[in-house]
Amino acid sequence: MSAPDNLLEVTGLKKYFPIYRGILSRHVGDVKAVDGIDFTLGRQETLSVVGESGCGKTTAGRSLLRLLTPTAGEALYRPEPGAPQVNLFGLSERKMRALRRDLQIIFQDPYGSLNPRITVGNAIGEALSVHGIAQGSELEDRVSELLRLVGLRPDVANRFPHEFSGGQRQRVGIARALTLRPKLIVCDEAVSALDVSIQAQVLNLLGDLQEEFGLSYIFIAHDLSVVKYISDRVAVMYLGRIVETGTVEQIFENPQHPYTKALLAAIPVPDPARRSQRVHLEGDVPSPISPPSGCHFHTRCPVAEERCSRETPAMQACEEGHHAACFLAEVCSST
Amino acid sequence: MTDPSQSPATSSNGSKPLLELRELKTHFRVDEGLAKAVDGVSYSLREGETLGVVGESGCGKSVTALSVMGLVPMPPGLNAGGEILFRGENLLLRSEEQMRAIRGNEIAMIFQEPMTALNPVYTVGNQIMETVMLHQGMDAAAAREHAIGMLEKVGIPSPLSRVDEYPHQLSGGMRQRVMIAIAMSCNPSLLIADEPTTALDVTIQAQILDLIADLQKAEGMSVLLITHDLGVVAQTAHHVAVMYAGKVVEYATVGELFSNPRHPYSIGLFRSLPDLAGAGERLETIPGMVPSATHFPSGCRFRTRCSIATDLCASQVPSLDPMDGTAGHTVACHHLEEAEKL
C-alpha cells in the first residue's frame, strides 16, 4: 500500500467528540465519529469516501485538514515525489498554515460557504493577499484568470453571491479552492446540492482541473453513481470505520462487504427495464454514541453470524488493492 | 407494483383518469414582475398508477402539486387559468371549506423534509389521530388504536411505545414513515409525494420507496411522485411527465421515455446522468442554466439551451403533441426529426 511517492498516507485517524453531562460536566462518553481509519492517496488520484449520514465521512475529511483537531492518528504528507514526509497532525499552527496552500476544501452548500457581504472577486482573492502572494492589479488578474478557469466571466468579480445560481456558486467555491494552486482538494459533497445537468458540468470541470493541475481529490459523497464516475479508488465507511476499500471497478463489480453490497443494491437504477427484486437493508444506522459490539454492521447484516457480535473483523486483502473488514468476505478467492 | 413493460397495456385498458390537469397556470406576483411558475401544465394520472413528475429545481413541479392540494398561498400566488379535474370535478371551483374536506382525506401529501412537516410539540400519535378524528369522526380512543395500527402498517418497530414519542426522538427514515402513516390514515385515493426520499440515505430511501409501493398495491391508490431523481422514477413510475420552465415538455410511459426520449431537454437530462456514461468519459451537459421564472424566453423556453433551436422556436410555442405510432407519448418540440439525430 505504501508507494514511495504517495501524496498522503493516513493511519489510525480518530476523531472523538466528548459528551459531557450534569452540573459538573462530567465526561460520560464519546461520539466516535471516526474510529481509526487508514487510507492512502496517490498523486492525481481521486479517492471517494462514501457512506450514509453519520458514518463519519465529513468528519474524516475535516480532521485530515485539521479543521477539526484529530483525536489520534497520523497523516503523512509528501509535497513532492521523493521529498520527506511531514505529519500533518504533528505540525505547529504556523507551519500548518503555510501548508494549507496545498490542502483545500470545497463544501457542499455553496449558499452557506460564501460570505453574502463579500464580492466573489474578494472571496477568491482573499487567500492571495493573506498569503502575500499577489496584490493590486496582479491580484485582479489572478482572480480573472481563476474565474475564466472555472467557466465564469471575469466581469462577475464585482458581484455578490446572491446574484449567482447554485451551480455558479459552486464554481466560485472551486475557484476559491484553486487560488493557491493546491495539491489536494477535499470535495465534501461538492455536487450533492446541484441539479443533474449542472452537476454534470461541475463534475466535468473537476475532471479538467485535475488533469491540468495534477490535483488529487478526496471526494466525500453519498451518491454512488457520481462516485462511480469520478473515482479511481473508493473507501466505504460505516459508523466511523472503513469497511471496504478498493479500486472503483473492484468495489462496483465485486463488492465483498455485505454493507457495500447493500449500498449498491439500494441505488435506484435509471432504467425501468431493470426494476430490481432487491433485498433491502432493514432498520436505521445505529447511534455512534453506543455502536454495536464487534462488527458495527452486524445488527443490520443479512449474513451475520454469532461471532460478528463478539469480535471486530480486521481489514483483510481480497485481491490486490482490495480490502474488506468482514469475516465472511471471500479472502483471496477472486485472484 | 406492476411490471413497467405491461403498463401501457393496463393503462389503455379503460382505467379512467383520477386526476387530470388541463392547461393549469399558477403564477406569483413578485417584485420583479409575474413569475409564471406553472404555465400551462397538462397531464393525467390513472387510478392505481404512479405518475412521476421530473425536472430540475424551479421547473414548477412542486408548485403544480401544491396547486392540486389548494395549498398555494394567494396572494402572492394566483390562478391564471386551467382546470384541475379530480374524479371529473374541477378542484379550482371548490370553496376553501370543501377543499379542507378533500385534503388529507381524498388527497394526501407527503413532503421532502419530514422534520419540518411534522409538528415538533405534538406526539406522532396525536398527529395521526388528528386526521382521522377530523375526517372520519373517530373518538379519541378509536383514533389512538388506529394510530398504533398505522404505525405498525408503515413498519415502525414497537408502535405501542412510539405512538407517544415526539418527532425529534425519531430518525429521518422513521419520521418519513410517520408522515406516510398520517397521509394514509384516511385511505386517500391520491397520494402526492413531493421528493419523499430526497433527504434520506440511499438504504432508507429504498425502504421508503418499497413501503409506498406496497401500500399502493394494497390500497389501490394513485401516486403523484415528484422527484428530480431519474433513478427513483425508473424504479417506481408507470408514466412520466418531464417538466421544464413551468411546462410539460414530454409525457410518456416510463419504458417509452427511458428508451426513446424525444425532447432535446429529456435527451440532455439522460445524457448528463453519470450512471450511464462509462467511467472516465466526459459527461454530456446541457449548457447554461434554467431561466428565471419572471423572464422566460419567448416561444420554446428551452431554446436558449438547445443545440437545434431555430427562429421558429423563438417565435412559436410548441404544443404538446402526440407522436406517431407510440400511444400516449407526447412531446412539445418543433424539430422532432432533428432531435432524433441528437
Can you characterise this structure?
The complex is a heterodimer of chains A (335) and B (342). Chain A is α/β, with parallel strands linked by helices. Chain A contains nine helices and twelve strands. Chain A has helices at 57-64, 93-99, 120-130, 136-149, 166-178, 196-213, 224-230, 248-253, 258-266, and strands at 8-21, 26-41, 46-50, 72-77, 86-87, 103-106, 184-188, 216-221, 233-238, 241-247, 316-319, 322-324. In chain A, strands 6-7-8-3-9-10-12-11 form an eight-stranded mixed sheet, with helices on both faces. In chain A, α3 (120-130) packs across α4 and α3 (120-130) packs parallel to α5 (166-178). The two termini of chain A are 17 Å apart. The mean pLDDT of chain A is 88. Chain B is α/β, with parallel strands linked by helices. Chain B has an eight-stranded mixed sheet, with helices on both faces. In chain B, strands 2-1-4-5 form a four-stranded antiparallel sheet. In chain B, a hairpin with a 2-residue loop joins β4 and β5 (89-90). In chain B, α5 crosses α6 and α5 (124-136) runs parallel beside α8 (172-184). In chain B, 50% of the residues are buried. Chains A and B meet through α5, α6, α7 and α9 of A and α8, α9, α10, α11 and α12 of B.
What's the topology here?
The complex is a heterodimer of chains A (335) and B (342).
Chain A lengths: L7 E14 L4 E16 L4 E5 L6 H8 L7 E6 L8 E2 L5 H7 L3 E4 L13 H11 L5 H14 L16 H13 L5 E5 L7 H18 L2 E6 L2 H7 L2 E6 L2 E7 H6 L4 H9 L49 E4 L2 E3 L11
Parallel strand pairs in A: 3-8, 3-9, 6-7, 7-8
Antiparallel strand pairs in A: 1-2, 1-4, 4-5, 9-10, 10-12, 11-12
Helix pairs in contact in A: 3-4, 3-5, 4-5, 5-6
Chain B lengths: L6 H6 L4 E14 L2 E14 L3 E5 L6 H9 L7 E10 L2 E2 L5 H7 L4 E4 L3 H4 L6 H13 L3 H14 L5 H4 L9 H13 L5 E5 L7 H18 L2 E6 L2 H7 L2 E6 L2 E7 H6 L4 H8 L39 H5 L5 E2 L7 E2 L4 H5 L2
Parallel strand pairs in B: 3-8, 3-9, 6-7, 7-8
Antiparallel strand pairs in B: 1-2, 1-4, 4-5, 9-10, 10-12, 11-12
Helix pairs in contact in B: 5-6, 5-8, 6-8, 8-9
